[in-house]
Structure formats: C-alpha cells, structure tokens
Amino acid sequence: MNALTGQNHYTEKTTDMIHLIEKYICSKEGITSKSLHEVNEKGKLPRDRVLVGVRQKVMHYAVENKYTLSDAGKFYGLDHATVLHGKKTINNLRYSDKCFDIKMSKYDEKLLGLYKYSIKEIAVKLEMNIPERIQYLKGILLILDNDIETMKIRMDQINELRDELHGSIKLYKEKLLI
After folding, report:
1. C-beta neighbour count of 103 within 10 angstroms
2. Could you report the per-residue pLDDT of 68-84, keeping only the tens digit for each?
3. Residue 47 dihedral angles phi and psi, to the nearest 5°
4. Which residues of 33-49 are buried (b: 16+ CB within 10 A; e: fewer)?
5. Which structural domain, as residue segments, surrounds residue 28?
6. How far is the C-alpha of 124 from the C-alpha of 44, rounded, in Å?
7. Number of domains within the chain
8. Of 59, 95, 98, 105, which has the maximum CB count within 10 A?
9. How do residues 31-51 score in pLDDT, each as one tens digit?
C-alpha cells in the first residue's frame, strides 16, 4: 500500500507480470514454477540454494520493473527485507562471479523494462525464444543419449577386463598351490 495515495500496487497486473518473469527464469534454470511455491512440512518455503537463487532473481526483476520490495516479496509470502537481501546477493554475485554476471546480463536483455508493455506484449516478448530453447534441449538430450550409450559400452569393457583379471588371479593362485 502506498502511504501517499492509499492505493495497493499489488494488482492482478503485478501478479501476472511476476508470473511471466518467474516462468521465463524457471524455463532457463530448468525448474518448475510450482517448486518455487511448495512449502515444507513446517509450512515454509524450502531453503534449497537453487530455489532460493531463482526466487531472488524473480524478485530482483520484479523490483527492477517498478514494483516495491513488499510487492515483490508478497508473491512468495516473503517480506521486503528478504527481497532486499536477495537483491544485494545478486549484485554481489554479479560483481564477484563473471559467469553469473553473463547469465544475468542475458536475463537483463529480456526482463528489464517490462513495465512499459502490456501483459500480452510481455508474454509475446518472453515466449519468442521457446522454439530455440526446445531445439537446444533436444540437442542436449541427444548428447546425453550418446553419452549413456558410450558409458554402457565402457562398462561392458570394464566388466570384461574385471572378469579376465579374476580369471588370471585364479590361475596364478592355482599355480602357486601346485
């Protein structure tokens, strides 16, 4: 709630935009949006490093798109201080980890300035690379399938060598006893 205007900025549009930001980041990070909202047996969000990192990114981009710290945190049932901590963590990682900074720069290209567009325009903007992403993932699956086949062949070779070694050891022991 804005103290000056008395208006609640956490509108459906805000929720929709944060959902789109979350969906986009989750697709790139290889996790589901649902996993970010699931609570543990204590009724709290899990503190798994990957999940926390993705939540921090989503809240970071919500704030960068003109939403308050409180509004960004409400999306996950968190307070403004948690969002602020997440933004500081992201900024520190960007400064200290070049790979992380490169990844965030790619997110910046897609996710900064979304507040200028309608929800429909945002959805189109973020969905544009889905076919490319699918193609990329198919390529990774092909590579993994080949790696699995190679590993199976190598395991068969290792098992054959093990059997030969056991046979040689058995013959050696027999010769020692003669």
Report:
1. 16
2. 999 999 999 999 999 99
3. -100, 25
4. eeebeeeeeeeebeeee
5. 1-128
6. 33
7. 2
8. 59
9. 888 899 988 888 888 889 999
